[in-house]
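Lecture notes, unit on protein representations.

Consider one protein chain, 441 amino acids long.
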Amino acid sequence: MSCGNKRLCARPYYKRLSAYLEGLAEAAGHSDRHAPLKSYCTGLLLPGERKSVEPMTARLAPDNVRRMHQSLHHLVADAPWSDRILVDKVRRLALPAMEKQSPVVAWVVDDTGLPKKGIHSVGVIRQYRGQVGKQDNCRIAVSLSAATSNASLPIAYQLYLPEAWTEDQERRRKTGVPEEIGFQTKPQIALAQIRQVVESAVPPAVVLADAAYGNDGQFRAGLAELELQYAVGSQSSLTVWAPGTSPLPAKEWNGQGRPPKLLRRDSQHQPVCVKQLAASLPASAWKTITWREGKKRPPRSRFAAFRVRPAHRDYWRAEPHAEEWLLMEWSEGAAELAKYWLSTLPATIKLKDIVRMAKHRWIIERDYEELKQELGLGHDEGRGWRGFHHHGALCIAAYGFLVMEKGRFPPSARSGQLAIPKAESAPNFQPRGRPAKLRTA
């Protein structure tokens, strides 16, 4: 079957795919897993509505469905290979190709909700899913992506296991949750991923994250300890010391006991929440900034930025927090401010450059759109911890190839156009879960 694009159907495309998959195969460990890994990634790249094992099997091996199904199912659900090693291998292959176009400018932290029915699949619980803005029955994965000015690639991926799951020994046993996995908040998972990437000697970049992470003082402190700059969202309730102010110094020592060391506040000297600070600004403080190109018109909004000191629990500290940028956005016509960020970017940076960096998180929206819609990130039908992470790592592997291919084509090329030509399914094949056709009289 023709792929509808002669250039993409050309033989070099398949040679590049073959070489890429050959480079990944060793990450699966035993040589018996090499061919299934290549087949699974190929199945993810083939066109098709569902990217779970059964429909992929029918497209890959219409004349030998059973054998192919057993091979792919064993690879993703049972085989003891490391998803982290595979994702690391993808990074080492794909990141240099991205950097030929432009350098890595950011590490982007985010999480994505994957809808799932029932209560028996690992990590599934009714919880807030940001993509729909409400509670939903789903599981959530935390990821870290490396982003250049025009491309991004997930370089770490882990399931968030809710506390109700970590305490349920029976469900842990049935879904194969490793013994060493305990409860971690999403910011804790993200910080562990960042530490892992730092240890892998990946060139450092500015860390970007939304308010679910940026409002966590320990997360920001962890980034500071790693000497990483950041531009992270915060909530309107975050307290800071207004420009030019700071906490009171420790009390003077009266000569008895230990000398006081802790910073102080009093009734007349208190920090303010960022919402109050923003409301006190004059109209002249707000500047209209355009931060990137748009399909119809470039996005633009009003911003203001000031140097402030975070006030979170500084009364337990001997020294005040270092000054950071407080960036605020207030769209024209809006009743109140929309977003806030804290950033440790240099004090000399221009406002437009802070805005562009803080807004660069948009690029991973494309990651998830393509990983879900084109590569079936949420199509895993297994229930176990191992299968969830194996499927996610293989989706990232397939996405890594598309990222490399995009560097060969103009920006108008989309991942859907880079898919492998569709294969014919087995005769009369019906994916599991599809209702049988009604009999006619």
